[in-house]
From TrEMBL:
It is an enzyme of class 2 (transferase). This is Methionine synthase. Residues 585-606 are annotated as: Disordered. Residues 6-291 form the Hcy-binding domain. Belongs to the vitamin-B12 dependent methionine synthase family. Keywords: Amino-acid biosynthesis, Cobalamin, Cobalt, Metal-binding, Methionine biosynthesis, Methyltransferase, S-adenosyl-L-methionine, Transferase, Zinc.
Length: 823
């Protein structure tokens, strides 16, 4: 039988409904899988059982079944010293699914995350991640899969690496599914909107989410996601939150309830439906029966608009959208302090400029780190990491260095705009390469190897060549932006008219977005802000989509606000009415001072100039500034600085992280800044004997579980709160945890588990610890555990995230001290 839903590469003929399978891990556990080996070993040691599970899903109505290779990448298998088995395990996993699928279903090659944090927040480089996924993809394709599913990822950068790895060996369809925290963002802080915009631009066929929650809890996240993509959407929810009963992991959402909950997503664009943890063939059977005969409806993002994305915020642009403000200030040209810092590899001024522009109303940040004699590629990579700690805006990568641009793309968690390329054929090819491989936007200048045409027709001819190449490459025109070039009116009074006419023709003839370096128009003139403001107003009236300007220039911002209103980009005058009182006050104040170029903008989320330097260094995650500040302090002030500056600052960081206002990159940056400061202060503390830790905590991921990112975050935050942490790592045997507990005598033992199959190991570890230390406080955490499970094993539930865990431990520590004092 020919499977009618096999052509998944064609977006126009993509099926209205695809039913995937359900959980594999829980089914293997029921079939007798040992918890001390990776599930992928079952492909060779339990081949009949794996095939039977696949067959059960096909009989239940699955149109696509997923290989038992979720943890089959070399990076993941190396935790078990099994990386050499990558090809065997993945090929065999694909073959078993192929046998069960027959001519009734397609086979999706499952690829899960590596378990490592990607650079610059962790040790895993983009290239190493890409090569690992590439090797796994090649083996899966050799085994006969029909498509790939990249699932349960929490880092956009790792998804991008996985897609690149697959595309180097295969043209098969790719589905991507990410997972979210209870606060509605990914582990690395990406919002559903950012994830949707970024994945929508990658060379993949369908996108969505899985795991973490049951159908009900995922609704608000999925709704935001669906509004920001045009691609087919998928959802694979859990059968509830896992619980441990009688030594077995139980999920409490029944098949009919699961199916009814999933059916509600059809009105939000769900075309691909399946199950994750805890779902069984019975759940999939109920799902298939419930969705049979239903029709998907989806109101996607306007396909005529373009989009870029930062870690949390997205910017939709186009001639019908509000004017996009790109902050121009992160550019060393004419900025001696920034230039000198960049040469030294320091990011303090860069971070300040990013934060102040974000607060001033920028909608994206232009990032230029080109200084003579410096390694631009290395600086650009470091700057991208620094930006993530102070701004959640999209980034415009401003460089002519191809290596620097590509390296920045690999680090950023979002969809950047690359600034810029020319109409030279080689430049066009480089732009097409980056757009198609990484899913970015590209800016083109209307000039080529012969220079800048001095006529409208000359610039349009270059634009026509670029458009022709973009169309032939199959790239939507919404992925490119044209700069028709603003030239100085002081040297050519025809220049503004040429730019404005070119801009208008680009909009009308090609429907593309446009941008300008607006301030170029006034070069060489006095009171440049007056010329800039007038020219910007004229350009917006011609359809200008975005501009690189100083968002602290009140006159320019007022012109943008008024122009948006007058050109129909501010329906109902909502933005104007909301923002004009503040702008009017600033204009009046600036006028009385004779100054409209102030950049001293205060940010609500960024420490102001009155914040003490050492506190500011910790709050902004600036290690270099923290170290320099400590070095400049008097030795007698260092001890007081710990209590008065460092501890309050890191507590503030913790509070903001707990409130969801800061995310993992900022947390890591602040931790590194604190470590840098404490490395210099500690010798002085030792001289005074003031080095006692707040408490002692032993922490480990239990046997059979090789996931440790969450555990590492908890350890990091605990250390920053003054605790001495003994981290035993991941996949730690029960006897090792018991022996180390007896040796180190900690106040607490923290146990972590992500996989539902290792909940039993957590229970066994807790029971073993109770035998040797009946009074020991055991704290547990991880995606698969909850308060009920903690109570069932006489442990303390560590909450939903690192900050809640620290808060709980702080409270328990105070109780422990009171009890000891009373003895």
């Amino acid at each position: 039988m020919k499977i009618p839903w096999k052509n998944l590469n064609d977006k126009n003929s993509f099926p209205d409904l695809l039913i995937f399978d359900g959980g594999m891990g829980t089914m293997l556990q029921k079939a007798g899988l040992r918890t001390d080996i990776p599930p992928e070993i079952a492909n060779v040691e339990m081949a009949d059982e794996v095939t039977a599970i696949h067959s059960a899903y096909v009989k239940a109505g699955s149109m696509v079944i997923t290989t038992n290779t979720f943890g089959g990448s070399p990076l993941k298998l190396q935790a078990h010293d099994m990386a050499a088995m990558t090809e065997n395990l993945n090929e065999q996993g694909a073959r078993l699914a192929r046998i069960a699928a027959g001519d009734q279903a397609l086979v999706a090659g499952s690829m899960g995350p590596s378990g490592f944090l990607m650079a610059p927040f962790g040790p895993l480089s983009f290239n190493d991640a890409r090569d690992s996924f590439k090797r796994q993809a090649a083996a899966l394709q050799s085994g006969g899969v029909d498509l790939f599913i990249i699932e349960t990822f929490s880092d956009i950068a790792e998804v991008r690496a996985a897609v690149c790895g697959i595309r180097e060996v295969s043209g098969l369809p790719i589905f991507v599914s990410m997972t979210y925290t209870p606060k509605g963002h990914t582990l690395t802080g990406s919002s559903p909107e950012t994830v949707a915009i970024t994945l929508d631009a990658l060379p993949v066929q369908a996108i969505g989410m899985n795991c973490g929650f049951g159908p009900t809890e995922l609704m608000p996240i999925f709704r935001k996601f669906s509004e920001n993509t045009t691609k087919p959407l998928m959802l694979q929810a859990n059968a509830g939150i896992p619980k441990l009963r009688d030594g077995k992991t139980i999920f409490d959402i029944k098949p009919e309830e699961f199916a009814a909950g999933m059916a509600k997503y059809r009105s939000l664009g769900m075309r691909i439906a399946g199950g994750c943890c805890g779902t069984t063939p019975d759940h999939i059977r109920a799902l298939a029966e419930t969705l049979k005969g239903t029709t998907c409806s989806h109101i996607p993002r306007d396909p005529s608009t373009g989009a870029i994305a930062g870690t949390k915020r997205v910017t939709i642009f186009g001639s019908s959208r509000p004017f996009t403000i790109i902050g121009e200030r992160i550019n060393p040209t004419g900025k001696k302090k920034l230039t000198n810092e960049l040469k030294e590899g320091k990011m303090t001024t860069l971070k300040t400029l990013a934060a102040t522009q974000t607060e001033a109303g920028a909608m994206a940040l232009d990032l230029n780190v080109g200084v003579a004699g410096a390694d631009e590629a290395g600086l650009m990579a470091k700057a991208c990491g620094a930006l993530s700690g102070v701004s959640d805006l999209p980034v415009v990568i401003d460089t002519r260095n191809f290596q620097a641009a590509e390296g920045a793309i690999q680090i950023l968690r979002g969809k950047p705009l690359i600034n810029s390329f020319t109409g030279d054929p080689e430049e066009i090819e480089r732009a097409i390469y980056l757009i198609k491989k990484y899913g970015v936007c590209a800016m083109f200048l209307t000039l080529d190897e012969t220079g800048i045409p001095m006529t409208v027709d000359g610039r349009m001819a270059i634009a026509a060549r670029i458009i022709d190449a973009i169309d032939k490459a199959g790239i939507p025109r919404t992925e490119i932006v044209f700069d028709p070039l603003a030239m100085a009116v002081a040297s050519d009074y025809h220049a503004p008219a040429i730019t404005l006419e070119t801009l208008e023709r680009l909009k009308n003839e090609y429907g593309v977005a446009t941008t300008l370096g607006v301030s170029n128009i006034s070069f060489g003139l006095p009171e440049r802000k007056l010329v800039n403001s007038a020219f910007l107003t004229m350009a917006i009236s011609k359809g200008l989509s975005m501009g690189i300007i100083n968002p602290a220039d009140t006159l320019m911002m007022a012109s943008i606000l008024s122009s948006n209103l007058l050109t129909g980009r501010d329906p109902g005058a909502r933005n104007y009415v909301e923002k004009v009182p503040d702008l009017a006050g600033k204009l009046s104040s600036s006028s009385s001072r004779g100054n409209t170029d102030s950049t001293a903008v205060k940010s609500l989320d960024y420490p102001d100039r009155d914040t003490k330097p050492l506190m500011r260094a910790i709050l902004t995650g600036d290690r270099e500034f923290a170290v320099d500040t400590v070095k400049s302090m008097n030795p007698q002030d260092l001890i007081d600085a710990v209590d008065n500056d460092l501890i309050p600052a890191i507590q503030k960081v913790g509070d903001l992280y707990g409130e969801g206002k800061l995310f993992l990159p900022q947390l890591i940056g602040s931790a590194e800044a604190l470590k840098g400061a404490m490395a210099l202060i500690s010798p002085h503390l030792q001289k005074t004997g003031n080095t006692q830790a707040r408490g002692r905590i032993l922490i480990a991921t239990v046997k059979g579980d090789i996931h440790d990112i969450g555990k590492n975050i908890v350890a990091l935050v605990l250390e920053n709160h003054g605790y001495q942490v003994f981290d035993l790592g991941k996949d730690v045997p029960v006897e090792t945890i018991v022996d180390k507990t007896l040796e180190l005598n900690p106040d607490f033992v923290g146990l972590s588990a992500l996989m539902t199959t290792t909940m039993v190991a957590m229970q066994e570890t807790a029971e073993a610890l109770r035998k040797v230390r009946p009074d020991l406080r055991i704290v547990i955490g991880g995606a698969c555990v909850d308060r009920d499970f903690a109570n069932s094993i006489d442990a303390i539930y560590g909450g939903n995230d690192a900050m809640e865990a620290v808060s709980i431990i702080n409270g328990e520590m105070e109780t422990l001290k009171e009890n000891r004092a009373g003895l």
